[in-house]
Design goal:
With 294 residues, the chain is of the alpha+beta class. The chain has nine helices and seven strands, in the order E-H-E-E-H-E-E-E-H-H-H-H-E-H-H-H. It has two domains: 3-201, no CATH class; 231-294.
């Protein structure tokens, strides 16, 4: 598939926006999303996919409180991924660049960046890692992804992301009409409210409330396709696996420095990632400890 099929748009260099694609049903994504402490619209985005559209935007804040949209989205995607058994794909764009970040479990996030005019500015190998983690077909999808990393004067930044989304349709992704790379955050919110499957609003949650609400996604029955998870679900609190307590300790050990680092950098995304790690770690340790005494 050539990127020429997704030609230059009319608002590539002016709008800032972001989408969070979760490879999970809306009910599962809705359990963890409050931990991001950001009000978001949630709706279905295809078979076993959901999309989150943030209402507020830390990158839209004035003065010292603002931060780059890619940093915020990377933190949010990482936060959701470490607390779940499914991958999270962040799509983002601003006046200068567009790109994506794929987070899955405790793996290092992988992403790619283009300049606003469509010039590739990422590492070619990142596309191959991206394809492998999502289980894309090497013969069918690799040529289309390679084309996204090649020069193309007819494809600007948003067109590159639209080309990426076209490849993801092979995994079941089907974004509602209007959720288009290059649109402003306000236009994205307006579009998602008209999604045919309906929309729900994920409210901000206090830390303690989030710990209670963020229950693990149930394991699939035998023979059921999991949908691309990382396999961490069997270590989750309530799974009965004794390693859940050790995972909880590891999450606390990682979550504390991540949270402190995010606070020092004034990065809401990384603070959310650290807080989610802490929340899940404490929940796992408390649950397994109580179960052991029972």
């Amino acid at each position: 598939m050539s990127t020429r099929a997704f030609h230059r748009g009319s608002h590539a260099a002016s709008a800032t926006g972001a989408l969070l694609l979760c490879r999970a049903e809306p009910d599962s994504a809705g359990l963890l999303a409050p931990l991001l402490c950001e009000r978001m619209a949630l709706t279905r985005a295809g078979e076993r996919w959901s999309v989150l559209v943030p209402e507020g935007s830390p990158w839209r804040a004035d003065g010292a409180g603002s931060e780059p949209v890619d940093r915020v989205l990377t933190g949010w995607a990482s936060a959701l991924a470490v607390g779940s058994s499914w991958p999270v794909l962040a799509l983002w764009w601003d006046a200068d660049r567009v790109g994506y970040t794929l987070a899955s479990g405790f793996r290092r996030p992988v992403g790619y960046v283009w300049l606003a005019n469509g010039t590739p500015a990422g590492e070619h190998e990142a596309m191959h890692t991206f394809a492998a983690r999502l289980g894309l077909d090497p013969a069918r999808d690799a040529p289309a992804l390679d084309a996204l990393t090649a020069p193309d004067s007819d494809a600007d930044g948003p067109a590159r992301l639209r080309g990426l989304i076209a490849v993801l349709t092979h995994t079941g992704v089907e974004l509602p009409v209007g959720l288009t790379p290059g649109e402003s955050a306000d236009r994205l919110l307006h579009a998602v409210t008209e999604a045919p499957g309906g929309v729900r609003w994920v409210q901000k949650a206090h830390w303690g409330e989030a710990v209670v609400r963020a229950k693990p996604e149930p394991e699939p029955v035998a023979g059921e396709k999991h949908g691309g998870g990382t396999g961490l679900g069997v270590w989750a609190p309530g799974s009965g696996d004794p390693r859940a307590r050790w995972l909880g300790m590891a999450q606390v050990g990682v979550g504390l420095p991540v949270t402190l680092w995010g606070i020092r950098r004034r990065s809401g995304g990384w603070v959310a990632a650290g807080a989610l790690l802490l929340a899940h770690g404490v929940l796992a340790m408390a649950y397994e400890g109580a179960r052991g005494r029972g």
